[in-house]
Design a protein that fits this description.
By secondary structure, the chain is α/β, with parallel strands linked by helices. It folds into two domains: 141 residues, Rossmann fold, CATH 3.40.50; 102 residues, Rossmann fold, CATH 3.40.50. The chain contains eleven helices and nine strands. A five-stranded parallel sheet has the order 4-3-1-2-9, with helices on both faces. Helix 1 packs across helix 10. Bound molecules: D-glutamic acid. The site of D-glutamic acid has 16 residues, from helix 3.
Length: 256
């Protein structure tokens, strides 16, 4: 039976969610986190809904076996596909992540907002509803293949990908770039080199961490022990775990 000092399960299709995990760890240092990256089945963003749902169901079963007290879906694609269904099925708190279009809308001046996300995220009802409300001036840009470059830490290829992606747009007329996939958060340094300095680069990690705190507090589930992080992957642990570790430490030091 899960209690306030049980782990919080966090998952993503791969290494991207460790950026979210870093924000969670910083916001809630007393919590124990169990992170699962589904690298063997990545990418999710170009699969069918049913395929993504099957991956998510397997991960949920695994996390529930570890008696987690709450789950954070550190993946915009899996949130869009599965969050509503999982909340209907399970009683424990389930927190998702979505593209930070609302904060982008709030800071928008007269320019456009480029929303980078997987083809699946941009196609589903959840994003359509967000776009209806906050989409003025927003241009959705599906980025198939980009998460793979983050998984491989292929910075030079990612730079070429982004330059090509932005080539139709006058970047001096852009107010914000929304990183609507948790993998893309690790492209921030590259984006900062490519984008004019006044363009805001937004992600959903901090908002998700704050939401988790609110939900745990409301359910009387905030831990009072020593926090910890355990990393797991469906990929080759020898290859993937060092990448996760490196990315998480980098993100933690950037957050400080
Ligand atoms: N990290 C995921 C997201 O936030 C998806 C990447 C993928 O598996 O395509 O959308």
């Amino acid at each position: 039976m899960a209690d306030r000092n049980s782990c919080i399960g966090v998952f993503d299709s791969g290494v991207g969610g460790v950026g979210t995990l870093a924000a969670l760890r910083r916001e809630l240092p007393s919590e124990r986190f169990l992170f699962y990256g589904d690298t063997a089945n990545a990418p999710y963003g170009t699969k069918t809904r049913d395929e993504v749902m099957a991956c998510v169901s397997r991960i949920m079963a695994h996390l529930l076996e570890q008696d987690v007290k709450a789950v954070v879906i550190a993946c915009n694609t899996a949130t869009a596909v599965a969050a509503a269904e999982l909340r209907a099925k399970y009683a424990l708190p389930i927190i998702g992540i979505e593209p930070a279009l609302k904060p982008a809308h709030e800071l928008r001046r007269q320019g456009s907002i480029l929303v980078l996300a997987t083809p699946m995220t941009l196609k589903l009802e959840k994003f359509r509803a967000l776009y209806e409300r906050y989409g003025e001036g927003a241009i959705p840009l599906p980025c198939p293949g980009l998460m793979e470059l983050v998984e491989r830490e292929a910075d030079e290829e990612a730079r070429r990908y982004l330059l090509e992606l932005f080539s139709p747009y006058d970047l001096t007329k852009v107010d914000a770039v929304v990183l609507g996939c948790t993998h893309y958060v690790f492209l921030r340094p590259l984006l900062r080199q490519i984008l004019p300095p006044n363009v805001e680069v937004l992600d959903g990690n901090l908002g998700t961490a704050r939401q988790l705190r609110r939900v745990l507090a409301a359910n009387d589930l905030l831990a009072d022990g020593d926090g910890s992080v355990t990393l797991e992957t469906s990929g080759d642990p020898q290859i993937v775990l060092p990448v996760m570790q490196r990315l998480m430490e980098k993100e933690l030091s950037d957050l400080n």
